[in-house]
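Reopening this ticket.

The earlier resolution said the output was attached, but the attachment link was broken on my side. Pasting everything inline this time so it's all in one place.
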Amino acid sequence: MKQYLLKVWMTAALSLLVVGGVWGQTAPTVVSLSPADGATGVPVGTTLSIQFENPIIANPTGTVSNLFIKEGSTILHAYASTNGGFQKNYASTTEITISGNVITVDFPGDLEEGTEYTVEITDGFVYDAGTNTAGVSILGPEGWSFTTESTIVNYPTIAVDGLSPANVATGVPVG
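Inline output:
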């Protein structure tokens, strides 16, 4: 019986090591977002970045994980992380880069003025570089959202009724 229990325990332990990493390992932890979650007045030329507690790597597996930049429910930019790299439209992209513990998204062009954006990241988009543990999921509207600056100027409205002298009046004294 002892040998059977030992075999079951060893099989379970090996399964955990292969599938989920070593006990006590945790997924990458987000330290900061730029722009900050809920930020307003964000410049339209902003580069997005996520700082993690530890160094990270792109998803090293063949499974695809995604990062979406959305306006409402419309996906404006979609990126995939798979096989240790990043893709956009099924081609390798340099719009997403990792440097140590920071992932940066620098997509071409500017964001629209006065628009709320949401960033959605699926599980496994990045992995902890030291433990090879799958990481972060920032989902939906409750996840990471920000609003860009608006340069629309609201000029005051001038009412034309009540002008004195009345519009197109004749015989108005000068001075």
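Reporter confirms the inline version is readable. The first strand starts at residue 30 and ends at 34. The mean pLDDT is 81.
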